[in-house]
Write a structure and sequence with these properties.
Elements (H helix, E strand, L loop, with lengths): L43 E2 L5 E3 L2 E2 H8 L3 E5 H15 L3 E6 L6 H10 L2 E4 L2 H9 L7 E3 L6 H10 L3 E4 L2 H13 L4 E8 L21 E2 L4 H10 L4 E7 L10 H21 L5 E3 L17 H19 L5 E4 L3 H4 L3 E13 L3 E6 L8 H5 L6 E2 L8 E7 L8 E9 L7 E5 L20 E5 L2 E6 L4 H6 L4
Parallel strand pairs: 4-20, 5-6, 5-13, 6-7, 7-8, 8-9, 9-10, 9-11, 11-12, 12-13, 15-17
Antiparallel strand pairs: 1-2, 2-3, 4-14, 14-15, 14-19, 16-19, 17-18, 20-21
Helix pairs in contact: 2-9, 5-6, 7-8, 8-9
Length: 466
């Protein structure tokens, strides 16, 4: 169902994105349970029923940092980095996809935990460099990199630039030659795989802006052009099929087609490219019904797929790269809101308005994304009520959680929290209605500190030159 297909004031039988209907969705057995599948690893409830993270009560955190705010479990983030690094080992590369969420603290944690970093803009590159990430451990993505961005990337010596078009092949080669450099590059190809995800985050079918199509021999032609330009060192092929994917079948098809291209390159040019990057896009649990795979399962499956296809093609197995972003940071954070107004609509649902909304989480409006939500400032024995958590912005589509059950005694001033908001929420946050973007607060072992501070009115007005 398209966004425009939702009528105003949807009833209980509306169809949710996965095909479930609200009418057929039973409330959870216990509204006070915080499902570890969707919450950061150190989240729990204390003896008073108040949710805690890193040993700190959310009520105290709200008092110190205000609401809305993103709270990020640093121990969980670091543990997930280590899990991905250990799963893929020394024979593969893990690049954290910075677009999910990036700050200088995040860059330092990545560096300390041994992960590489994928950036897709000059601003992300600047953040990475300012926090000390070695340039050779950075990959630079993007479908329309400016000459200034490319020049800086080549000058600082990024480990790879992912080429996204025929024009970019020439552009990067020219800039590298003018600087007396030979830039390591990969070619991003679209492999014709339709990922089972939202249209706007499926990226490997031909009818979209990313990459160079395998169909019609375009990718093979891109390889020819890159191999004959002195400013480029072609090290491999890149493929990314989409985001929030649970099924490995798409990766299997993608890997098979990428390996077929590697075999064509060998046969035509006598060159075996040493690397392939299978991208990211692995899903996380936003609700209890989601069932994501663990890093070791993903590493084993991808390794077996690539090895099998290369053996069949008579190729040496290339070095694999992957780019988890959401899968690392997404589950480690939650957004804390304070309830403002509560509006029951008889026979429909109850609208619960919070002090944030689409300015701090646009994903529900943009992608029909689903989230969980819980009352976290106390526990409740009240009956569950079907609720829609909405923001304070002047948009009817300002929805944070489309359909959820909250206790019927929910009251203004209560704190509720939405888990699994570490990825894309702060990155895509806006100043719509001149809202001030929330802080990101890292919590670890009983200590909390803002790693991105809350915006102020002074910040908001500073760019307004009047």
């Amino acid at each position: 169902m398209s966004r425009s297909a939702h009528p105003a004031g949807p009833r209980h039988a509306d169809v949710l994105p996965e095909g479930r209907s609200v009418a057929s969705t039973a409330p959870p057995a216990d509204l006070n349970t915080l499902d570890p599948k969707v919450w950061a690893r150190t989240v729990a409830r204390d003896e008073d029923g108040v949710a805690t993270v890193g040993g700190l009560r959310v009520t105290d955190l709200a008092e110190e940092f205000g609401t809305p705010a993103y709270f990020l479990d640093e121990s969980d983030f670091r543990a997930r980095c280590r899990a991905w690094a250990e799963a893929f080992g020394t024979d593969a590369d893990v690049f954290y996809a910075g677009k999910a969420f990036l700050s200088r603290a995040i860059v330092r944690w990545l560096h300390e935990e041994g992960l590489n970093l994928d950036v897709c803009s000059g601003g992300e590159l600047a953040t990475a460099l300012s926090a000390g990430m070695p340039a050779e451990r950075i990959a630079f993505h993007g479908n329309n990199k400016s000459e200034e961005e490319i020049r800086r990337a080549v000058e600082v010596g990024v480990g790879r630039i992912v080429l996204d078009s025929f024009q970019e092949i020439v552009r990067v080669a020219h800039i590298a030659q003018s600087l007396g450099r030979r830039q390591r590059v990969q070619i991003r190809v679209t492999v014709g795989v339709e990922a089972h995800t939202h249209e706007f985050i499926a990226t490997a079918h031909e009818d979209q802006k990313f990459g160079i199509a395998l169909a019609g021999g375009q990718a093979a032609e891109a390889v020819r052009r890159a191999l004959r330009l002195d400013g480029l060192e072609l090290i491999g092929i890149h493929s990314h099929i989409g985001s929030q994917i649970f099924d490995m079948a798409g990766f299997e098809v993608s890997a098979r087609r990428v390996v077929q291209l590697l075999a064509e390159v060998r046969d035509e040019h006598g060159v075996e490219l040493p690397e392939i990057d299978l991208g990211g896009g692995l899903g996380i649990a936003y609700t209890s019904e989601d069932d994501p795979r663990e890093p070791h399962e993903i590493a084993k499956a991808l390794g077996e797929i690539v090895t099998r296809e290369c053996e069949a093609a008579g190729l040496r197995t290339p070095r694999i790269s992957v780019e988890p972003g959401r899968a690392i940071v997404g589950p480690t954070a939650f957004t804390l809101y304070r309830v403002g107004t509560i509006k029951p609509l008889d026979g429909l649902r109850t609208y619960v308005s919070v002090d944030g909304g689409m300015s701090d989480n646009i994903r529900t409006a943009l992608y029909d994304a689903e989230y969980s939500v819980s009352l976290v400032s106390r526990v409740s024995d009240a009956e569950p009520m079907l609720s829609r958590v909405v923001g304070k912005h002047c948009e009817s589509g300002d929805i944070v959680v489309r359909d959820a059950f909250l206790p019927a005694d929910l009251a203004p001033g209560d704190l509720i929290a939405v888990p699994a908001t570490g990825a894309y929420c702060r990155s895509m946050a806006s100043n719509y209605n001149h809202a001030l973007r929330p802080p990101v607060v890292a919590v670890r072992d009983g200590e909390a500190r803002a790693i991105v501070r809350r915006e102020t009115e002074e910040d908001l007005l500073r760019l307004d030159v009047g």
